[in-house]
């Protein structure tokens, strides 16, 4: 289990370095930032079990607010969910609300 956790934190550092490189920032800066962030993660969360949600917890409310009865495909693409999730999230909205 500890190896998976170390791999996860290391992958965060690798992602930071990768995105810093994409932005054209000096490699040393990217590596230093990645190291600082991974150390902070380890210091702050050591010994804890952390859950990372697949989607933001308020995605249902965001979908419901944007739904107009005809934009399920667009919302599904935008939020990275299935069309059936859009319909499930919005199934109890009144017809007057959608129009």
Descriptors for this entry?
mainly alpha; Arc Repressor Mutant, subunit A
Task: Provide an overview of this structure.
The structure is a single chain. The chain is mainly alpha-helical. It folds into two domains: 2-45; 59-98, Orthogonal Bundle (Arc Repressor Mutant, subunit A), CATH 1.10.10. Helix content is 69%, strand content 0%. Helix 1 (2-22) runs antiparallel to helix 2 (27-45) and helix 4 (72-79) crosses helix 5.
Number of self-contained structural domains: 2
> How many angstroms does the end-to-end distance come to?
51 Å
Shape: elongated
Characterize the main sheet.
none
Estimate the helix proportion, in percent.
55-70%
Approximately how much beta-strand content do the residues carry? under 5%
How many strands appear in the DSSP assignment? 0
> Averaged pLDDT, please?
83
- Structural class, judged by helices and strands? mainly alpha
- From the alpha-carbon coordinates, what is the Rg to the nearest angstrom? 20 Å
Tally of DSSP helical segments:
6
Spans with pLDDT under 50 lasting ≥5 residues? none
Which series of helices and strands comes N to C? Answer: HHHHHH
What's the arrangement of secondary structure elements?
Elements: H1 2-22, H2 27-45, H3 59-66, H4 72-79, H5 83-90, H6 95-98
Helix pairs in contact: 1-2, 4-5
Quick summary of this structure?
The protein has 99 residues and is mostly helical. It has helices at 2-22, 27-45, 59-66, 72-79, 83-90, 95-98.
């Amino acid at each position: 289990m500890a190896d998976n956790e170390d791999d996860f934190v290391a992958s965060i550092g690798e992602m930071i370095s990768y995105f810093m490189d994409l932005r054209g920032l000096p490699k040393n800066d990217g590596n230093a930032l990645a190291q600082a962030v991974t150390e902070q993660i380890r210091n702050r969360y050591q010994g804890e079990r952390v859950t990372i949600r697949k989607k933001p917890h308020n995605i249902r409310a965001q979908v419901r607010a944007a739904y107009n009865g005809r934009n399920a495909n667009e919302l599904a693409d935008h939020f990275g969910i299935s069309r059936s999730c859009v319909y499930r999230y919005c199934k109890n909205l009144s017809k007057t609300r959608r129009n």
